[in-house]
Every structure is written in structure tokens, then in C-alpha cells.
């Protein structure tokens, strides 16, 4: 599975992925989502930034395909995309991947 993902990830896509991960607020959001699906209202309470900034950071994470959304009435739930781990692993240079480290 990893080799298929790696073959489809260009250098530009890898750069965009790591750029999305390069912000402390976005890393905090991903930490909050690591336990499962979270309502945007809960993210707002946990992260404590202006709603428009939270929306911006969530959009960056969605565009990088790190998170996915589910609408529940007027609320939106966020969760890590199912492909996050293999995509991140495949984006690393060969020498840094788990299977290459001995």
C-alpha cells in the first residue's frame, strides 16, 4: 500500500503536506483529532483561537487531505483522514521510513 501511495505523491504534494504540518496550531488540531471524530465546536473550545482562524487552519488541513469532515445537522465533525499515516510515511525520504530503519 505504501509504495502505491508513494508513487502517486509528487515532490510538490509532499512539500504542501509538510507545509500544512509546519504550523503549531494545525499540529494542535491534529493532536485533538488523534482521539477520533471531534465537533468543530469542541475544537474551538480546545484550541481557543478566533473562529475565522480555526476555519482557515481546518481548510489548510482539508486541502492537504489530512482531515475529513462529516456534517451533522448544522455542525461539522472533523477526523483524521484514514490515509494520514501511510501518506506521511510515504512522504518521508526512504532512509527515514520505519521499514528502512534497522
Please tally the helical runs, counting DSSP H or I stretches of 4 or more residues: 6
Overall mean pLDDT: 83
- The radius of gyration computed from the alpha-carbon positions, rounded to a whole number of angstroms, is 15 Å
In angstroms, what separates the terminal alpha carbons? 21 Å
Helix content: 55-70%
Q: What sort of overall outline do the alpha carbons produce when their principal axes are compared?
A: elongated
Order of helices and strands: HHHEHHEEH
The biggest sheet amounts to: 3 strands, antiparallel
Tell me what portion of residues adopts beta-strand conformation.
5-15%
The tally of strands reads: 3
Subunit arrangement of the protein: single chain
Secondary-structure-derived class: alpha+beta
Residue stretches low in confidence (pLDDT < 50, at least 5 long) are none
With strands numbered from the N-terminus, the spatial order across the biggest sheet is: 1-3-2
Amino acid at each position: 500500500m505504501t509504495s502505491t501511495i508513494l508513487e502517486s505523491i509528487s515532490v510538490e504534494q509532499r512539500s504542501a503536506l509538510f507545509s500544512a504540518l509546519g504550523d503549531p496550531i494545525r499540529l494542535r488540531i491534529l493532536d485533538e483529532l488523534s482521539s477520533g471524530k471531534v465537533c468543530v465546536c469542541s475544537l474551538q473550545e480546545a484550541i481557543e483561537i478566533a473562529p475565522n482562524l480555526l476555519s482557515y487552519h481546518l481548510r489548510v488541513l482539508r486541502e492537504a487531505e489530512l482531515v475529513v469532515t462529516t456534517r451533522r445537522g448544522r455542525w461539522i465533525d472533523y477526523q483524521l483522514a484514514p490515509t494520514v499515516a501511510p501518506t506521511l510515511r510515504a512522504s518521508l525520504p526512504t532512509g527515514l521510513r520505519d521499514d528502512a530503519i534497522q
